[in-house]
Amino acid sequence: MSRFTEDEIKQKVRDGYILESPDEMTEGYRKSLIVQLQVQADTELMSAPAYWMAAQDAPSTNTQVSAVAIIQDELAHANIAYRILEDMGLDKEQLIYGREPHEFKHPYGFDQPLESWAELVTANGFFDRAGITLLSDVYRNTSYGPLKRALVKVDLEETFHLRHGEVWMKRLAQAGGTAKEKLQRAVDWMFPMTVEWFGLPDDMKRHSGQLEYRLKGLTNDQLRQVWMSATVPLCESLGLEVPAHWSDEEQKYVLDFPFPCEYDAEAKHWDFTSGQISWDRVFERWKQRGPMNERYVESVRRSHAPLGRMMAQAA
Q1: What is the pLDDT of residue 142?
Q2: The predicted structure's pLDDT at residue 97
Q3: Could you tell me which of 190, 133, 182, 183 has the C-alpha nearest to residue 158?
Q4: In this structure, how many other beta carbons lie within 10 angstroms of the beta carbon of residue 52?
Q5: Which of the residues 148, 184, 236, 309 has the least number of beta carbons within 10 Å of its own beta carbon?
């Protein structure tokens, strides 16, 4: 049992206290950190099969090797987060192999098929930018020491993934023709998808535990602005259209579409014409998971049983 009450630990972390052990955690702190780490671990894990599918469309052997290197990094990042969850009493084997596919907590974007090189590099440019935005904020502000130290490696490698995506987005945009058209189609569905990734607007946020326990420092809307402040100028510089712009009047980036809105997962198409929908409908879509959910989870688990048998025979 923690020697702190909930109010005491909230005040201590506000004053800069860093926890170094689960023994110091209150139940509220522990629950909030577990939720955060499960989303982090599942997101890293489920990016691997999505990226691998698109890597089959790599334009050369060398570029496929770079894509595989990114996948290897993502799996290592997932292992880091699952390992910290083990320290908190959770079973890594159960988390990876014992849950139903719909129980994973990764963003909806990684339940979509990434079907081309243009989609892969846009995912590196958009989704990995979202990951860096979120994890950099956690690194700067988290009150849990083991996670803060682990994120040094993660942030450095995620920066490489982002640069890979942005460099290739520039190449495809400069190539023009079909290459740029494919890139624009990827941007069309991934931009609203990533905006949605950051979750509820601040005026609707139901839980504030991660802020109260200083597990992160910025709100959802602040993180969304950080992401758009890099992504919108990048796309504009490449001649790519995005449904957002800088507003001098509001001194922030503003969306040019109803948010949130309906999404057709099969067609990878956002319906901007039917108006805003409720967040309850968004949560229902997230809960049902996307078209690749079961296939991606199965692909991650496929070698588990044969590998277990090989290790048992070798023992």
Answers
A1: 97
A2: 95
A3: 133
A4: 18
A5: 309
Lowest mean pLDDT among 3-7, 41-45, 309-313: 309-313
Write the DSSP assignment of the chain as a string of letters.
--SS-HHHHHHHHHTT--B-SGGG--HHHHHHHHHHHHHHHHHHHHHHHHHHHHHTT-SSHHHHHHHHHHHHHHHHHHHHHHHHHHHTT--HHIIIIIS-GGG----GGGGS---SHHHHHHHHHHHHHHHHHHHHHHHHH-SBHHHHHHHHHHHHHHHHHHHHHHHHHHHHHHH-HHHHHHHHHHHHHHHHHHHHHT-S-GGG----HHHHTTS-SS-HHHHHHHHHHHHHHHHHHTT---SEEEETTTTEEEESS-SS-EEETTTTEEE-SS----HHHHHHHHHH--TTHHHHHHHHHTTHHHHHHHHHHH-
Question: Which residues, at least 6 apart from 297, have a Cβ–Cβ distance to it below 8 Å?
Answer: 46, 101, 104
Give yes or no for residue 252 having a pLDDT over 70: yes
Residue matched to tokens 């955060």? 36
Structure tokens at 68: 């595989």
Judged against a pLDDT cut of 70, whether residue 1 lies above it is answered with no
What predicted TM-score, i.e. pTM, was given to this entire model? 0.93
Residues 6+ apart with CB under 8 A from 6: 26, 28, 29
Which residues are paired to 264 by β-bridges?
A: 269
Which residue has tokens 């959802």? 220
Tell me what pLDDT residue 297 has. 95
